[in-house]
Amino acid sequence: MAAAAPSEGTEPASDRSVLANARRIVVKVGSSSLTSIKGGISEESLTNLADALAAKRNTGAEIILVSSGAIAAGLAPLGLAKRPRDLATQQAAASVGQGLLMARYTQAFGAHGVTVSQVLLTAEDLMRRSQHANAFRALNRLLNLGVVPVVNENDTVATHEIRFGDNDRLAALVAHLVRADALVLLSDVDSLYDGPPAHGAKRIPLVEGPQDLEGVSIGKAGKAGVGTGGMLTKVEAATMAAGSGIHALVTSTPNAAAALRGEDVGTWFTVNGARKPVRLLWLAHIASVQGRLVLDEGAVRAVRHHRTSLLPAGISAVHGEFEAGDAVEIAAADGTVVARGLVNYSSAELPRMLGRTTMELGEELGSGYEREVVHVDDLVLVRAVRSPKLGL
What we know:
It is built from 13 helices and 15 strands. Helix 8 (about 165-175) packs parallel to helix 9. By secondary structure, it is an alpha/beta fold. Strand 2 and strand 3 (about 40) form a beta hairpin. It has helices at about 15-20, 30-35, 45-55, 70-75, 85-110, 125, 130-145, 165-175, 230-240, 255-260, 280-285, 295-305, 360-365, and strands at about 25-30, 35, 40, 60-65, 115-120, 150-155, 180-185, 205, 245-250, 265-270, 290-295, 315-320, 325-330, 335-340, 380-385. Strands 5-6-4-1-7-9-10-8 form an eight-stranded mixed β-sheet, with helices on both faces. Helices cover about 35% and strands about 20% of the residues.
């Protein structure tokens, strides 16, 4: 039975009943929860996860599973002792492991009468308008047909330059793409704590905004050696989602069923911002910055307070090497980064344009130079960060 699509314009609840009543949920599971270097795919862990998600799906909810584990699943068959560092071997392991992973998901969900599909995405699929529209249509149709899409980054073809970085961020972007009601991030840690759990730290049950995380020491990737994330990337992804209109929960994979019932497990990140286009989330949180545009005071005010496009007249300096279409930082003269944007000109073209009006440029260089340097639709404000050293 296909579940109804999420309702538009409805203000979500501020507690965990969101998960109990949600009609569209994105669930992300990490490599450490599904696989190990010695044993490949953990049959028990994968089956238990599928049982929990299929049970939720069979109540009428729509589930998208963002699953890591392809590279880890391919290590043992290839005789590799640990996760490879070089991209080519990672791609080879992913090519072997993805099929093994999907075969097990097909079997485990099939035991509950639930069909799964494989959806492999690259960063470009979510950064370009036509491609992310196609991705949305495909995922939405699968959900309407009652399928559980299993999403992963297309590790076999992705390059270092266009990777999401980890599947936690991918899951947050997918949640926005499909207009999910909630995002659940599963790992081998049951909650976020205010310090190392082994040292008596306390669980943090609720995060209502960035201020609740001030002073909290957040761990990095775990000891399993098969994943790329850790609690830090999960908190970043949950914060990204909550700041853009989607509730998020961080908990352990064994807690999946309890989490989906809305029980008090894990750390709940309540919504603290409005929904944003998925491209702007990619630009704000994931895009690889290739350069920086330094603005005068008037241009900073126009961008920050009036949400205007960036024109060459307001730019005082250009740093870095980039091509048209690349992501760049937009900063004040003191180095405070105020925004990110997709630039319409290369770093070779811009210097002769600085401080000049588009009319002047059009008359001298041609109509192609009457465009904005960064259009407002390709610009996103960020929390002001002082960053005097480029490090590009």
